[in-house]
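Input (DUF5666 domain-containing protein):
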Amino acid sequence: MVQILSTSARLFAGSLLAGSLLISAASAQQPQPLRIRGAIEAVDGAVLTIKTREGDERKVKMTDNVTVTGIARTTMAEVKPGSYIGVTGMPQADGTQKAIAIHIFPEAMRGTGEGSRPWDLRPNSSMTNATVDQKVQASDGQTVTVKYKDGEKKVTVTPDTPIVTFVPGNKDELKPGAKIIIMGATKKDDGTFETARVNVGLDGLTPPM
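Output:
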């Protein structure tokens, strides 16, 4: 009887492992969202030709329901306790982060991507989406404490740190010369890309994140 139970347990464990491997394989085959930063070179209907920051050219097709979001300059005065923000940061020797960009989410986007993760703006940079707990003025800028569900970070913000906010945008702003960042492009079999969201810098702004 003990042997029968042992065999059954092994068969059950084996089926779980096989199922896990199948799920992992299926996940690996799913197109992974990509970030594309650059400037629009041409617009042909729903297709944007983008010169990326790396210097190559990519064609990105916008879906029929594409959302265009503007990125506008703002000031540190708009970063208040309770604000939900994204901090593009660099690690410091004392364990804090130095902000190389901050973007303020509108209230409707509160909770978007909450947490801290590696980011690709610069080597070793991170992105932390979190709620501002407090601000402290310092002689060389400000220190902001942000909290998210798994922890908190102290962030140094200098006078040179770009501060931006998301505002409603429209397709008219997607024109040659406009600087954009696409957070979730998917690569198609023909080498082109597709996206349902485009973030565009307003008034000549290069999205700093």
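The longest helix spans residues 2-29.
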